[in-house]
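Usage example:
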Amino acid sequence: LVAGTGLAASAGATPAPQHQHAPVAGPAVSEPAASEPARQFTLTAGTATVEAGGKKVEAWAFNGQVPGPEIAATVGDVIEVKLRNRDIDRGVTLHWHGYDVPNDQDGVPDVTQAAVLPGQEFVYRFRADQAGTYWYHTHSASDVGVRMGLYGVLVVRPRPVSGLDVIVPVHTLSGQILPAPAVTAAAPGSPVRLRLINTDSTTHRYAVAGAPFRVAAIDGMDLRHPSPLSEQALLIPAGGRYDVLTTAPAVLYVDGRQLWSTGAQPVETAHWPVFDPLTYGTAEPVPWSRFDRSFTLVLDRGLDLRGLLPRYAHTVNGAADPDIPVQFVRRGDIVKFTIVNRSLVVHPWHLHGHHVLVLARNGQPATGSPLWLDSFDVRPGEVWEVAFEANNPGMWANHCHNLPHAGAGMMLHLAYE
Ligand code: C2O
Ligand code: CU
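Running the assembly step on the lines above writes:
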């Protein structure tokens, strides 16, 4: 295990453009046989005192650290993670955010497994066949559990190769953005891959300065044509990941604050325009000519009259979890979702078990197509049209990844066998 300090500079993927994971119609998952040797990890969840912003704060941690240990694998490995709960009364699970595992490995309590209570354990096992940048977190009382520190990074590299490969999960613990090691030595001109992961419940603004860069992948999926960019900021939604390729000297800002550098000079980035993956690149034809099912999700606010949720619930089609009907599809269906945000706040949408192809936003086709996402910000007034192939049977959570919103009703399920 690599002790996670929030950032690891290790021998990893070459920062040159490379094929990671760019499916034609979404990934399909396969289950490893029980006899296959695995890369093994043990994560023990427990209350802990950790340091944030120079202060000691109470946290919930995996193996005593926030973020938890980095889970890194190479394509072809089998990953086996033994989860133990020492003393987290609300229970713990592991959800592999953005990584499309078989349903029984998805880590949603009361849906795919029972929550792991103090003294209990659960073993997860799945194949590392999807290269890219992901993360894991508890899905039990997740609004509290993730905020308190029960998360870590999951990185699957295409092959072990050399190069500076820097993982930057950004998380706010007790009001402090957890620091990454401030400087990594790198010779000028040497390639750098930054794996930016937003593990908070709200959007962060990232700026990579010092050298031109490319956005190589979003949500673990390679962009088809990563052209050079400079002086553009990246807005990463809650749960989202951007892989950025650049060269030293480089400096990374998050919300205007320098989080990491190779020793580059400070740069003023506040005025930079925002990179928009939906209007970037060239339109490419959608691989499907028809949709077998179409659903509309209207996101709003409403009164919860049952007294189960905060009085003002976050609603989908006028209902709040657990009263939102399960949406049933058939295996093999091409499913379209239209997501309408009628509320006054951003809802970072996240479907488990699948990546969705973005078709359009506010009626404008996505020219950055094919853009496969698992986490995307639906801003107030926006309408997103996305689609996916139902190729991973099970009961899947489909929810807002502002986790307090999910806990206050904005969570539903999609099912097929
Ligand atoms: Cu990262 Cu159901 O979530
Ligand atoms: Cu929300």
